[in-house]
Amino acid sequence: MPTPSMEDYIEQIYLLITNKGYARVSDIAEALDVHPSSVTKMVQKLDRESYLHYERYRGLVLTSKGKKIGKRLVDRHDLLEKFLMIIGVDKENIYDDVEGIEHHLSWNSIDRIGDLVQYFEESTERIADLKLIQEKNEEETANQ
Ligand code: CO
Fold first, then answer.
1. Per the annotation, does 135 bind a ligand?
2. How far, CA to CA in Å, does 85 sit from each of 9, 111, 125, 144?
3. 92 pLDDT above the threshold of 90
């Protein structure tokens, strides 16, 4: 399994290739807010571990292993965003919170969160019920 830091790179490279058709070292550096030399180092590591091929002129190409894990990481990110949205987390916190937790949950927890998301999505009444509890708790907090 890739380390959390490797996961960040694979996730970003997968997103860049999906959205732009290619992933340049400079784009990855910008997306992850790191120095290009760190990107080059990590890309070489990912190449050695066969997540991608780094070719001087063609740039980065994900291997089928890299694509598979990349898709999984992007899906996991999207699921966690959906989860935080459903449980009522404020919009401005969602992206950063997901970036903070996504590497630290087991796939077992991710799958069970997936069930919970499904549970809420299957009926708007369930979401409304949860909202009622939240409103009550917020009110109590405000009155303390
Ligand atoms: Co992410």
1. no
2. 25, 17, 16, 26
3. yes
Assess contact for 38 and 29: CB atoms under 8 A: yes
Distance 16 CA to ligand 1 centre (A): 13
46 C-alpha vs ligand 1 centroid, how far in Å? 18
Residue 90 has a CB neighbour count (10 Å cut-off) of 9
d(CA 131, CA 139): 12
Coil, helix or strand at residue 52: strand
Query: Over the stretch 17-57, which tens digit does the pLDDT of each residue have?
Result: 999 999 999 999 999 999 999 999 999 999 999 999 987 77
**Ligand 1 mean position, distance from CA 144 (Å):** 36
Q: Is 35 annotated as a binding residue?
A: no
Closest among 62, 49, 101, 60 to 79, alpha carbons compared: 101
Give the residue among 3, 1, 2, 29 at the shortest CA–CA distance from 12.
Answer: 29
Whether residue 99 is annotated as binding a ligand: the answer is: yes
CB atoms within 10 A of CB 83: 19
pLDDT at residue 137 is higher than 90: yes
Q: Which residues pair with 59 in a beta bridge?
A: 55
122 labelled ligand-binding: no
